[in-house]
Amino acid sequence: MVTEIFFKEFHTPNNGIFLRIKDSLIKTRSKFQEIWVVETEGFGKMLLLDGKVMLTEEDEHIYHEMITHPGLSLLPEGMRVLVIGGGDGGTVREVLKHNPASVTLVEIDELVIEVSKKFFPSLAGSFNDPRVKIIIGDGVKFVKEAKDSGFDAIVIDSTDPEGPALALFSMEFYRAAKKILTQNSFIVTQSESPFYNKQFIVELLKNLKSEFRYVKNYIASVPTYPAIWSFTYASDSLELDVPPKRKISPTKYYHPNMGLDTTKEIVDEVFGCS
Amino acid sequence: MVTEIFFKEFHTPNNGIFLRIKDSLIKTRSKFQEIWVVETEGFGKMLLLDGKVMLTEEDEHIYHEMITHPGLSLLPEGMRVLVIGGGDGGTVREVLKHNPASVTLVEIDELVIEVSKKFFPSLAGSFNDPRVKIIIGDGVKFVKEAKDSGFDAIVIDSTDPEGPALALFSMEFYRAAKKILTQNSFIVTQSESPFYNKQFIVELLKNLKSEFRYVKNYIASVPTYPAIWSFTYASDSLELDVPPKRKISPTKYYHPNMGLDTTKEIVDEVFGCS
To answer: Do B257 and A253 touch (CB under 8 A)?
Structure first.
């Protein structure tokens, strides 16, 4: 007989997804949030923060490849990368495919890292690499206090723009981030769903456009995320384009020739191009 | 108080989506299938065939733009287009943006057309265009009996590859289709989800590759469809590439510079390229 326990996530008050659950592996609470790892049927283990899907083993590669490779493939190897958030280790794992000189991870919630090390070794195993430095703390504070020009790339792998993560989407943060970047550098952030969070993306693009010369929102399909998902890239010196300078392997979803434009309605609205 | 009726579609036996339902507008049965139109909260009216989501007013543009524009933008205007299936009218609506000389729709289920005319005028309104000819019948039979070189493009807007739609994915059908195409022409078909139906796509690509010179599977995110969705294009003379020859407007999702490669794992498996 098949287990009839379903996890349900509402993406809006009117719709969402459901996944069959085999087992609950750990349910705990940190200073910041509820952390829950469940075993699903079909999607492997799943990490939930405050009841929201952060990742499943089956489709996490899509998010992690797409937040890192389009930008990092524009930089020469030996880059120094700052990752804000990303306590599960998936983003660091992908960054390491670029042969960076160093990866600094600033995660606010130490318990996310501990839980990931135990239940998601295929992601958090990346933390064992000697080039990886982990700092437990507030990403906004870290960026404001870091010394100038220390990083070639900043990857903002945050939760939704609410609560502590909200400050990671502010003009103030982007200005501080720019100060600690080298001349040939970029920032990239997860930027919610253009289907459900259009107004948020419109604002984000306007803000970034006022600070950076090249700004681009690009999309990917993450099956357990709400509708179409997006990432936003910004740089003063490196235009995001295809084909990229270097090939990265192995990847499962990311393809060097994949286009990186978002849905046309967002592009139109913000940049007035057609 | 908010309606607590939810439509639930299982994308696999273990997961799926749910949508809040406001009302049932028509539920009927044709010779071929159950046809149900419901009013959702948030996604507008939704067409269900045998309980599966065919379209919602909110996201149908993604599917219909993506099945038509990448291929048709490679042809000069005045093309003659054959649409197999597509009884809701959405594909024909998008084809008309290319100023075709003619659009022939072959739909097996007359009741789908009737229901769409009544409940989905923003799609089925396209059937009023004088260049559109509607034939009620079996698409496979039509293609086998049609005269040679009558069409510049065939768009296969079918249901899942089971039951009557299965024959639309056969080698026999593709060979017959090739015979009724002009020299500068292509076929394009909806081709399921590379996330859930990988083996199906691998087979499809192998089959098409044995008949056509240029074959490409490309993806889009349709929020109410299972995971990532895909389309497969095949031609002997026209390589699918970006940027396309002509601009099409207005579109909401399709962008002339969007990349058209599928997820890398499929490309690798079938073509052995990296």
So the answer is: no
